[in-house]
Design goal:
6-stranded antiparallel β-barrel; 12 strands; about 10% helix; Elongation Factor Tu (Ef-tu), domain 3; mainly beta; 3 helices; YaeB-like fold; about 30% strand
Length: about 230
């Protein structure tokens, strides 16, 4: 038996994040975020989705594609700890792993069987960059996958939320659903955990726009929202 496994993506994610900056640190934190699971041509068979409509949530098994070949270390510096303390790689969800595999629980919003790109799954709460390869999709089983008594180690909660101050005239530059999702993303503090300079201006790309903001105390202020050039 070979110790080497070869896997190919069954799908890719289509999301509003062209880069990793701003992506929620875990799935489900911003439920208003929508994304589409677009299947590879050889898997665009509606029969492969038969029965999926009975499930409300899914597991996505995916690849940290930007980390492939980057190597790994037995310890990493989790952002949750401010990047100042090392933990074992298997006690974290760092992308720099022996096998750069990610796991996300998402809500299944809609199954679209007939699109120009074949069947698609519309999901919410995804924490994936646009184009991320998906290795597998599995149904979430509440009786087996939900453990309310589970301990969260050094990350027991989703973290504190920020107050977002965004002028209405800026928010109106986005469609209503994208504006709502953006506010959710910003409230989760997209900055690296070790950066707390109130004078620093941050920028992130989201839904075809560049969003610039600053953070002072518990308030994030949106400074500009500009459409990206094609």
């Amino acid at each position: 038996m070979s110790d080497t496994l070869t896997m190919a993506p069954v799908a890719h994610i289509r999301s509003d994040f062209p880069t990793k900056f701003g992506i929620p640190r875990q799935s489900g934190l911003v439920e208003s975020l929508r994304a589409a699971v677009v299947f590879a041509p050889e898997y665009r068979n509606p029969d492969a989705l038969r029965g999926l409509e009975g499930f409300s949530h899914l597991w996505l098994v995916w690849v940290f594609s930007r980390s492939v070949g980057a190597g790994w270390s037995p310890t990493v510096r989790p952002p949750r700890l401010g990047g100042n303390e090392r933990m074992g790689v298997f006690a974290t969800r760092s992308p720099f792993r022996p096998n750069p595999i990610g796991l996300s629980a998402v809500k299944l919003e809609e199954i679209r069987l007939h699109t120009p790109d074949g069947p698609q799954l519309i999901v919410s709460g995804a924490d994936l960059m646009d184009g991320t390869p998906i290795l597998d999709i599995k149904p979430y089983l509440p009786y087996a996958d939900c453990r309310p008594e589970a301990l969260g180690g050094f990350a027991p909660t989703g973290g504190a939320e920020l107050e977002v101050d965004c002028p209405p005239e800026l928010l109106e530059r986005l469609p209503e659903d994208k504006a709502r999702a953006l506010l959710g993303v910003l409230s989760r503090d997209p900055r690296p955990s070790y950066q707390h300079d109130p004078d620093r201006v941050y920028g992130m790309d989201f839904a075809g726009h560049n969003v610039r903001f600053s953070v002072a105390g518990n308030t994030l202020t949106v400074l500009s929202i500009e459409a990206l050039k094609p």
